Structure formats: structure tokens, C-alpha cells
Amino acid sequence: MPKAVIVSGSPNLSSRLNGMIQYVERQLSAQGIAVERVTVAELPPEDLILTRFGSPAIVAANRLVAEADAVLFASPVYKASYTGVLKTFIDLIPEKGLSGKVVAPLFIGGSYAHLLSMDYSFKPVVSALGARIFASGVYATDQQIERTGDAESGFRFELTQELQDRLDAAVQEVIEEIYLRNKQ
To answer: What positions belong to coiled-coil segments (predicted)?
Structure first.
């Protein structure tokens, strides 16, 4: 069974980004793709900051990336780039750790002003790790995801139809690339 991993770089577990992640997880699973998630904010902070490649938590997270056919990196955009939390994890992915994998960003920001962060801050870094197969990323704004509930009862997210359509197209592209790569 093909595998995908979503690496969440959000430092905030109530982030609207989780609405995108949950939606994409459901869509991939419905198409027969096994989906795992790495939530970087849940990894030991000292292992990330001190670049402990041998840490059991980092080794386990990197194993998920290594075993995946597709790696989707999800992040809020702060100051025109993905989060530092996500960068600390990307720094721990082995050299050429993204070779042969379908890679796609799922980013969210307060406005479309930082839409190009996917191309100008994200792609060069993951390209250095061997990423060459890029599926279309999706950049959303906070206004496209309504968050209800709370930490105690659980957050729920409602995505606009336009955002769902763009996520569906991106998921379909990821799936097509996975199957194309698995045929080779």
C-alpha cells in the first residue's frame, strides 16, 4: 500500500492548519493511501534544537519520512516563511532524504501576501534534500477555515468549498505521482 506522511510544522495545536491536514488525511486515506503524521511540536524540543540525529523520537519520525512515497509539509507562514519549528525538523532529515518522493507544501497565512513562500523559502531547502518531484502545493488563508469548539471538547474545522476543491486537486496530483513512481 502506498504511504504518505504529513509533517506539521505548526507550534499551535489549535491552528486552522489542522483543518487542512485533517481534510487531506481523509482524502488520501479514501484513495487507499496509508497516512501517518509527524507533529514537530510534539517531538522533544531539545532533540530538535541540539540536532540529535540519534534521538529515538527523531529516528522514528525520519523512518516515517523514509518509508513514505509522498511527504506533505504543512506550516503556517510567519514573516514570509514556514515556521522555525518545521525548519528544525527539516534540518534533521538525512541528506537526500527526500529523493524519489513526491513533495508538496500545505501552507496557511493571514493573507495571500506570502503565497510565494512555497516557492522562495520552502522549495530551495527541500531541494537540497533531494526533492525533485513536486506536486502542487496549497496556500490557504485563515478566512477559508472556520474553527469551532475548544481544547477541552476538541476543535472542529470547516473549510470553504473553494479550499476543498484546491486540496482535492492537490491530493489527486500527489496520488497520480505516487502511482507513476511506483510503476517505474
So the answer is: none
Comparing 4-18, 19-33, 142-156, the range with the smallest average pLDDT is: 142-156
* Cβ atoms 74, 106 nearer than 8 A: yes
DSSP 177: H
pLDDT of residue 181: 78
Give Cα separations from 9 to 74, 78, 131, 162 (angstroms).
Answer: 6, 11, 18, 24
Q: Which of 119, 140, 115, 147 is closest to 131 using CA atoms?
A: 119
Closest CA to 177 of 72, 105, 102: 102
Cell of 142: 485563515
Q: Which residues are CB-neighbours of 130 under 8 A, at least 6 positions away?
A: 95, 96, 97, 98, 99, 100
Q: Which domains does the chain have, with CATH numbers?
A: 3-183 (3.40.50.360)
